[in-house]
Amino acid sequence: MVKVKMPIILVNFKTYAEATGENALKLAEMAEKVSDETGVCVGVIPQYVDIAIIAGKVNIPVFAQHIDPIPYGSFTGHVLPESVKYAGAVGTLINHSERRLKLADIDAAITRAREVKLISVVCTNNTLVSASAAALKPEMIAVEPPELIGTGVPVSKARPEVVTGTVEAVKKINPSVTVLCGAGISSGDDVAAAIRLGTEGVLVASGIVKARDPYKVMLEFAEAILKVQR
Fold it and tell me: Where does residue 25 fall: left (phi above 0), alpha (psi -120 to 50 degrees), or beta otherwise?
């Protein structure tokens, strides 16, 4: 069983051409290399059809981009949590800004993830929503103001109060929940800032996937984490 440890760098492949099919596997192999070289946990979040191939080739955590809170049955087109688990995923995103859910559905998805032993990473857009999500007992919360996603402007610098406020609110409600930081993360300094603000990792997409040299950027992120820990 692949172990998930903190701090963590989670790389969301979204549906970018640079992270689809063969490119997805290459990117996952780069992530594994960085993890092996630095000891920092790097997880990947590929598209559903790439999960099994990637999970079978690399020894790093693989997450799904979403699950539906459904059981076995007549649910054509839905994402069954068991299928994600069988494919080799260890966890899943829930409520990403590009796949928003109602609070009741977030709760149901967390429950289903727990039933099949998938780590739930709930994405939130502010401190209030983060606090509400913490009460539902996910393993992780990733705070990402949607207006900063893909901008290259990190929330850890542009709106540090969102990060510190989220960490404080979440830990007050549920100290066992891990808080990650996302949106606009594109440099080692951004990652270091996020860690110093009290988070235990970052959720990144285009900052790595769209980079000219994804391996170099992931290595920079991992080394930034190590420097903060020293």
Answer: alpha
Residue 84, token pair as written in the block: 């994600």
d(CA 62, CA 124): 21
66 catalytically annotated:
no
37 Cβ contact partners less than 8 Å away, ≥ 6 residues apart? 219, 222
Tokens of 93: 């995103």
Catalytic residue (choose from 18, 29, 32, 96) = 96
Catalytic residue among 18, 115, 144, 220: 144
Beta bridge partners of 203: 10, 182
Q: Which residues, in sequence order, are CB contacts of 43 under 8 Å at separation 6+?
A: 4, 8, 9, 10, 11, 31, 60, 61, 62, 63, 90, 91
pLDDT of the chain, 230 residues: tens digit per residue: 688 999 999 999 999 999 999 999 999 999 999 999 999 999 999 999 999 999 999 999 999 999 999 999 999 999 999 999 999 999 999 999 999 999 999 999 999 999 999 999 999 988 999 999 999 999 999 998 766 566 666 666 667 888 888 999 999 999 999 999 987 788 999 899 899 989 999 999 999 999 999 999 999 999 999 999 87
pTM for the model? 0.94
Separation of alpha carbons 18 and 86, rounded Å: 25
Q: Which of 122, 119, 160 is nearest to 141 (CA)?
A: 122
Tally: H helices and E strands in the chain: 10, 8
Q: How is residue 45 written in tokens?
A: 């979040």
Q: Is the Cβ–Cβ distance between 101 and 109 less than 8 Å?
A: yes
